[in-house]
Amino acid sequence: MYQNLIIVGNVGRDPEMRYTPSGQPVTTFSIATNRQYTANNGEKVKETTWFRVTTWGKQAEICNQYVKKGSKVLIEGRLTADPATGGPRIWTTPEGSSRSSFEVTANTVQFLSSRGENEGGGGMNDGMGGGSFVGAPEDDIPF
Length: 143
Known about the structure:
There is one protein chain. By secondary structure, the chain is mainly beta. About 10% of the residues lie in helices and about 50% in strands. A five-stranded mixed barrel has the order 1-3-4-7-5. Strand 2 and strand 3 form a beta hairpin. The protein starts with a strand and ends in an 18-residue tail after the last strand.
């Protein structure tokens, strides 16, 4: 069996890098994809889907350095299910609204914003495989 997911979206907040006990760098950040369509009743509908992206090793270090809030990125990787539910990560906001995000382990991260937009550029693929927004305001995202 094989799974490959490709996502293009905007980064929701600056990445966070940490290290495993063995010293392996791990960087996480969220991206949002937007979809706009017209419903059967003629009303325009705007829909946002959030993904939480995890990168490992050298790719994690590069993402931590160059990925910034608002950057446009292309992620290629695999969907990682929530161990508790087997599906997307689900949480409740302080106001009582339900929210969800999908966890993605990136194999490839390509920076699509120009250098002037986020001081980044190029793309990164380490082969390890290890590991304006519409919708929810950023404060509603738990990561």
